[in-house]
Amino acid sequence: MAHPAAGDIVMYTPTRIVFAIASGSWTGKPARKKRPCVVLFVNPHTAMQAVAPLCGAVHKNAGWQRRDGMVVNWWHPILFANTGVPVPPDGALIQRQPIIITYNPWYSKPSFMSDFKPSYIWAGDSGEWVQHQTSQQLEVVGEYLRVDAGQLNHLVCWQSHWALWNPPPA
């Protein structure tokens, strides 16, 4: 199995409490299930990887919306290109374009992937570092869905912005 690379989407169970709190979790505890995460960086010396989790929007009477309690600036809207899935509302202090995640219909959907729905990606800081041993066991979505280098750089710029001007707790 190839190791995940920057731009890959992997299934991972995030452990940082700030993700739970900032996503509007009613328990305030880390996730107990695997969720799609984008690999942001791979450290060439340790093979550790930084990942940013995705968080789905919720459907309410007025359509797709952020979860109640979600920290607006730290969750960036996603456009799943070529899927017809709507981009959820943003509402951040600064106008920003959605991060584009490219869907490639020429590849089969992995059995562990759920259906597309309006979603956000973590942009509050550089994400969560995953140990090399753990990263070797991650399910990688592959060419079916990925973030290209330009969009990854765009996301990292927003992460740097919020980490400097409105940082989440460590």
Beta-strand portion reads: 25-35%
Q: Count structural domains.
A: 1
Give the low-confidence spans: none
Biggest beta-sheet profile: 9 strands, mixed
Number of strands: 11
Any idea what the radius of gyration is?
15 Å
Indicate the overall shape: globular
* Topology pattern, helix = H, strand = E: EHEEEEEEEEHEEH
What is the overall number of helices? 3
Distance between the termini: 33 Å
Structural class, judged by helices and strands? alpha+beta
Mean pLDDT: 91
**Helix content range:** 10-25%
Describe this structure in words.
The chain is globular, with a radius of gyration of 15 Å. Helix content is 16%, strand content 29%. The protein is an alpha+beta fold. The protein has one domain (9-165). The longest helix is centred in the last third of the chain and has 17 residues, at 149-165.
Helix and strand topology:
Layout: E1 9-12, H1 17-22, E2 35-42, E3 49-56, E4 58-60, E5 63-65, E6 75-81, E7 99-103, E8 119-122, E9 128-130, H2 132-135, E10 139-140, E11 145-146, H3 149-165
Parallel strand pairs: 6-7
Antiparallel strand pairs: 1-2, 1-10, 2-3, 3-8, 3-9, 4-5, 6-8, 7-11
